[in-house]
Write a structure and sequence with these properties.
515 residues; alpha+beta; Jelly Rolls; 2 domains; ten-stranded mixed sheet; nine-stranded antiparallel sheet; 11 helices; 20% helix; globular; dipeptidyl-peptidase activity; signal
């Protein structure tokens, strides 16, 4: 959710939305061959902008920009139109770019509202991201737009990053006029996906906190475990209430992909998942851009009640990465992981291999790295599969079970997965982290006793990745992964049991043989 990445992506998105062209130097690839993504309707209206103050239930108001279909840029068109809360976000400086993006839908017969959350831009108060107060405000904004004289009362909400999580939270609060949502790079849980990764503080989010919501630098450390403070900011804690039609736009290179996949797995009946070869940001301008036709089809279906507007042909539309590269591009599946995916069990061996079975039991050790550089050779363990004889597709989340003990009264584990080429160079594929005392629960940590061996389950973020013939799967095990997590584990050593009955990986393999 870093502002720098977000602003750059918004600038590219504004160019695409306004001019209908790709930015200079952008790579291109065709969207999926699915009528949903190729859907189109001609623009028939001008765009009328109005700055409004939207009242909320505690008597305060939020600064918003209302965009309406017009017969000119100053005369609203007669009649009633469905509405989209296009962004409900803390990034007031991007309001104009949001308006340019919203114009695509306004020109096709939608009202659109862009709002600055409480404590941002011209909205009074203190910014407290995703707080219960902010969620109440969002609820009230949706109902205000539904009650507008130019509204049909059918409202959708969409948004990127901050706006994506706000959109998901709006859905679980179930305002009566909300019909459907499109979260882009959203989350399932603010604690797990962003602030405390595996229970370990996330180093890279602090610059965002300092620039956007400095008060959180005080409040968040007061809640190091998963308590009601975090549950109140979570979609995951209310998955049973995520019941509206949901089109999730995810990126396999996005740091929040685990939350988006988790939302789909929790509610596959009403959630559709589109995962592309994208970094954090709108797909516009990135490789394999899907365009806006699918978004328009979604809104026409659920807000205009046009049954001829298509839905995606499959519940999951996923781009097999690397992309561009070895991956075979867009695939569609009825479920995730795809049917036919096998769980392949690999042991970490004493010789540094990843093999079925495991061989002789042994103990491997590494030192804890307390610096933000490294880890050095003595501060990590590497385990490598044999070169694969044919391409292997990993589709889903790798799960690691690490049997480990610590010389200190706490320990951190980072499991980082690489694709190693025959020349020894590596590409990072995915990763996962765990604070040892949180191995059973982020809510109720258990004390770590030095010297005692624990079975530590480390969840690795999902991927859809093709390992090319001749390449190896490599796992790095260490105590740190800065800046993804802080290098704050107490100094000492970590002992890892390997071989038969030792540490293992479970890898979801869709195609090919691994090990």
């Amino acid at each position: 959710m870093l502002r720098r990445t977000f602003a750059a992506t918004m600038a590219a998105a504004a160019v695409v939305a306004t001019l209908g062209i790709a930015p200079a130097g952008a790579t291109t690839d065709r969207p999926p061959t699915d009528p949903f993504f190729g859907y189109a309707r001609a623009a028939t209206y001008d765009v009328v902008r109005e700055d409004v103050r939207v009242p909320v239930r505690d008597g305060s108001t939020l600064a918003c920009q209302l965009y309406r279909p017009g017969t000119s840029t100053t005369a609203p068109a007669p009649g009633e139109f469905p509405g989209i809360v296009y962004e409900f976000t803390a990034y007031a400086s991007n309001a104009a770019a949001f308006g340019q993006g919203a114009a695509y839908f306004v020109e096709r017969g939608y009202n659109a509202l862009v709002c600055q959350v409480r404590g941002s831009g011209a909205s009074p108060g203190e910014l407290d991201p995703f707080s219960p107060q902010e969620q109440r405000d969002n609820y009230d904004v949706i109902e205000w737009l539904a009650d507008h004289p130019g509204s049909t009362g059918d409202i959708g909400q969409m948004g990127l990053s901050y706006g994506g999580h706000a959109t998901l939270l709006a859905a679980v609060n179930q305002p009566p006029s909300l019909r459907a949502i499109i979260p882009i790079n959203g989350l399932s849980d603010w604690y797990e996906n962003t602030i405390y990764r595996g229970g370990i503080p996330n180093a890279q989010i602090r610059s965002w906190q300092a620039s956007t919501a400095p008060g959180t630098l005080v409040t968040y450390p007061q809640h190091p475990t998963y308590d009601d403070f975090w549950r109140g900011r979570s979609v995951k804690s209310r998955w049973d209430r995520l019941t509206v039609p949901t089109l999730e736009i995810n990126g396999w290179y996005d740091r929040y992909r685990d939350g988006m996949v988790g939302n789909f797995l929790a509610q596959p009946d009403n959630v559709w998942l589109v995962s592309g070869p994208w970094q954090h940001g709108y797909p516009e301008g990135q490789h394999a851009d899907i365009g806006r036709g699918g978004y328009l089809a979604w809104w026409d279906r659920w807000l205009r009640h046009d049954q001829s507007a298509p839905l995606p042909r499959a519940k999951v539309t996923s781009y097999e990465i690397p992309g561009p590269g070895a991956g075979e591009g867009w695939q569609q599946y009825a479920q995730w992981p795809p049917a036919g995916t096998d769980e392949v069990d690999l042991a970490l061996t004493s010789e540094g291999g990843l093999r079925p079975g495991g061989g002789r039991p042994a103990m491997r050790e590494f030192s804890v790295n307390t610096e933000t550089t490294g880890p050095e050779a003595h501060e990590r363990l590497l385990f490598r599969s044999r070169p694969v004889a044919q391409d292997v597709v990993v589709a889903g989340s790798i799960e690691a079970t690490i049997r480990a003990s610590f010389t200190a009264a706490e320990g951190h584990l980072a499991v980082v997965v690489y694709d190693e080429r025959p020349d020894g160079t590596r590409t990072r594929v995915t990763e996962g982290w765990l604070k040892a005392s949180h191995h059973r629960s982020h809510s109720d940590p258990l004390p770590v006793r030095p010297g005692q061996t624990y079975d530590l389950g480390v969840h690795v973020l999902p991927t859809h990745y093709r390992l090319t013939a001749g390449h190896r799967l490599v796992v790095r095990l260490s105590s740190d992964d800065y800046p993804e997590i802080d290098s704050v584990a107490p100094a000492g050593r970590v002992s890892v049991e390997v071989g038969a009955r030792g540490s293992r990986l479970t890898v979801p393999v869709l195609d090919g043989e691994l090990g």
